[in-house]
Every structure is written in structure tokens, then in C-alpha cells.
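Q: Give me a backbone?
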Amino acid sequence: MKTAVVFLSMKGETIAPGMKIVNLEKGYTNIMAEYIQEVLHNDLVEIVPERIYSTDHFQMINEAKEEFENNERPAIQPINADIDACEMIFLGFPNWWATMPMPVFTFLEQYDWTGKKIVPFVTSGGSGFAHAIEDLKKTCPEAEILEGLAVLGHEVENEKKKIQDWAWRVYQEEEMKKNLNDFDSFKNEDALNFGLKVCEIAEREYKRQVRIRVVYDDVIVFQYLTGDLVGGEWLDKKEKTVKKTGKSSICTYYHPEEFKEIQGDNSCAMFGGGVPYLINGENHGAFIVSGLRHREDHDLVMKALESIKKN
């Protein structure tokens, strides 16, 4: 799914806890956007206003207030990405006067959002999104607004894992909705092509060998073990996880509260890399990869399935 991380951020003076003025070399929202881009590996696009705001924080917020009260659409520099080609946009901004900065409205009104997904994220001093989500829905009524994330500006650098886990989970849950793992019928060549494609992508993108297994109706129809990756215990664990839950193993990692029956079960693996093998929506087995970091294992499965579906 073609995705971009689009953000507006301000460096320079801002208010830290205790009403202290601090000077930022890089804005909080910029840092948050980079964390998201780091895990999704997509375009990073900055909304840059033509206007140069004051470096004095209190003067700047008064300038922002004037734009808000006049419902202005300040000019922005040309966007250096093909937004029209994107299916999903992670949209980040600081909270200005309980909503999005007016240059973000300028950006949004330049595009047709029909059928697109927008994932908002915001940095603030404590008020979170305030009215921003409501205003975003009014501005882009044809878009699907997905689960957002609000982070205290001064806490961004301490929340990297939380930010990246949220972004990656939202993205992958939308990817799973594309049903890349659902087939009309079982074919041996699909299992073979999946295995070959996993090997190709793993070598090209990760320079690593991985374990691979495809299971259909309790029969291993494809398996690949090589070199020092001779053990199949993680393949067994991911296979059991998918079989018991009917969900991808990464889903159990991000929603453990829904899968209490396998928590603490050492024969299962609540990590990425196991995806149900569906035939017309019914679970018949699993596509499994092991050998990379668990998010990379899941990515590898989905990339391979997308490739064989296209062909």
C-alpha cells in the first residue's frame, strides 16, 4: 500500500513543562514523523508554509491565532511527493488553537481524498487532538480517518517504541484487510511461488536466509530450512498460533488481551511471521516465515503474498 508520512512542524522556541522556554533544533512533530517513516520505509513529506513565523514563541502563537480566527489558508511550498498516488497518509501536526495549523488545511484542500485513508498524529502540551479530528473529518469527508495518536511534545523522544508500534500496527492491520492471503482454491504452485518469492525478497532486502513453511489442512506442502537455520521450532510455534486463533501471529502480539488462551503457552509464538492460509475466507493453514525481527517476518510474508497475487 503506497503510503507517505506528511507533517508540519515548528522548530525554535516552545514551552516546556514548568512554563520554561526551550529552543528546539528540530520540532517535536518532525521527530515523531521520522520515527514513523523509519519503521514504514515510505516517503517523508514536510508541509512548509511560505510565511516565516516569528521565532519568538508567544509572537508565533499570536500569528497562528490570527490565522485561525480569520479562517485563513496560508500559502505553502509545493509538496515533493505524489500524494494522489498514495492510498494512506500519516498526517502529523502540532495542536494550534485546539485544531490543526491552518497551513495543514491548505494542504488538505489541495487534494481529492476520496477512498484514501488518513492516519492523524499530533504533538501538544497536553490538549491532544482537541477539535482536530472533527475538523479533519469535515475537511476530508470522503476519506477514512483511522486511529490516531497524540503524544506530549516534550515526551516524543521517550515514546519512540510506542509511536513506532502504533504506526506499524495501524498500517499492517489495513494491509490485512486487502485479503492477500485469501485464495479461490488450493494450488501447489501458490505454495511453491510463495516460498521462492520469500527467498528472493529476503536475500534482496535483508541479505538473510529465513525459514519458510506453508501448511494446508495440517499438511506441510512447502518447507525451506538451510544453513544454521535448521530448527523448525519457531515455525511450529507460529503455525500453532495461527491454527488456534485463526488470526495472524502479529495480531496476537498487538492485541494480547483478546488471546488469553495462548498467553503463557510456550508452544505458541505471539510474534510476527504467521498468517492464515484462507480459501474463500475459511482458514485452512498458514504461511509462515521465521529468521528476521518479528515485524520484518510479517512484512516478508505480506510482500511475498502481494507478489504472487499480482501474478
Remarks:
- The longest strand covers residues 282-290.
- Residues 188-206 form the longest helix (19 residues).
- The CA atoms of residues 237 and 266 lie 8 Å apart.
- The mean pLDDT is 91.
